[in-house]
Amino acid sequence: MQVTINGKNQTLTDGITVAELLAQLDLQPIRVAVEVNEDLVPRKTFAETPVRDGDQIEIVTFVGGG
Amino acid sequence: MASNRYRVGSFEFTSRLFVGTGKYADFQAMKDALAASGCQVVTVAVRRDVMAPEGGTKPDNILEHLDLTRYTVLPNTAGCFSAKDAVRSAKLSRELLEGLDNPGAKWVKVEVLADKKTLLPDVVGTLEATRELVDAGLEVLAYTNDDPIAAKQLKDAGATSVMPLGSPIGSGQGILNPANISLCLEYLKEDDPDYPVIVDAGVGTASDVTVAMEIGADGVLLNTGIAGAREPVQMARAMAHALEAGRLAYLSGRIPRKRYASASSPTDGVIASAARPL
């Protein structure tokens, strides 16, 4: 399936969850926050939130700023 | 010392300096400068995470370099040009900070910017985002213009603190309109003297911090003034001293400005030769 992650098109295996996606991207769940189609995905639900074809996914973290 | 305890919403601090974490040469420089400033609150921004390049390693995350037991993180919505994006960004930060068990999960500095050249705030968007985030249960610190009317409207919308700007972000122009900041303070603190007002943005050097504190601000938020200095650690110390000086001066009550001189030494008993003043 095709999704958009942080503005880039990516092909993912069907049926993966947000938790699996983060593992695939080598991201620590504790250091990111995730939105799917502009809705926040609570960290507690990463493991049970499926990624669907066409999803717009944002994976953010903190950076230095003022 | 003048920097005794004060409150911002449900938070209580002794340091009145809020320091940003951007633009340092590296994370070590950031850590050293934050420590030298004595700050208890550091602000960070939310951005898309950077994935490791093919076969490479992921760049360090700021969270590896911030002592989250020492600092309360104030997430900001810097870079958002709409109320909607600011609200999304604020909710993402809350989720991050809840996971990290940092008290900063309870608050956010709302910035809704209007213009890329000046980075001046969109006050209408800021008001909209403030209302929405207050409804969502966050304590909102609203970055805004040095406009007393907008400041009052933000407070009425439920902002925990209003943060009027000294001058545009990163400009180093200092406090361009102290008279307006003073009016903001007057309006915001009317019948509510403990309402916290933090001057945010534009600080170029230590005296700018002093000016803000002398007119009665409760604190100052700055970033580039330290991060961009040739010697950031030394400048961080200067900023802390300047804040203390300004706070003490404010509490001590400055003398009124007078048109003419008023001699400090007795005017009687002066030995006088033939020379006489005009």
Structural class of chain A: mainly beta
The share of residues in helices of chain A is 10-25%
| Cα distance spanning the termini of chain B | 46 Å
Instruction: Tell me the series of helices and strands of chain A, N- to C-terminal.
Output: EEHEEE
Query: Terminal Cα separation of chain A, in Å?
Result: 38 Å
Rounded to an integer in angstroms, the radius of gyration calculated over CA atoms of chain A is 11 Å
Order of helices and strands of chain B: EEEHEEHEHEHEHEHEHH
If you had to describe this structure to a student in words, what would you say it looks like?
The complex is a heterodimer of chains A (66) and B (278). Chain A is mainly beta and 66 residues long. Chain A has one domain (2-60): Beta-grasp domain (Ubiquitin-like (UB roll), Roll). Helix content of chain A is 11%, strand content 36%. Chain A has 1 helix and 5 strands, in the order E-E-H-E-E-E. In chain A, strands 2-1-5-3-4 form a 5-stranded mixed beta sheet, with no helix packed on it. In chain B, strand 3 (17-20), helix 1 and strand 4 form a beta-alpha-beta unit. The radius of gyration of chain B is 21 Å and the shape is globular. Chain B has a single domain, classed as Aldolase class I (TIM Barrel). Helix content of chain B is 35%, strand content 16%. The longest helix of chain B has 21 residues, at 232-252. Chain B has 278 residues and is an alpha/beta fold. Chain B is built from 8 helices and 10 strands. Chain B has a 5-stranded parallel beta sheet. A 3-stranded parallel beta sheet of chain B has the order 6-7-8. Strand 5 of chain A pairs antiparallel with strand 4 of chain B.
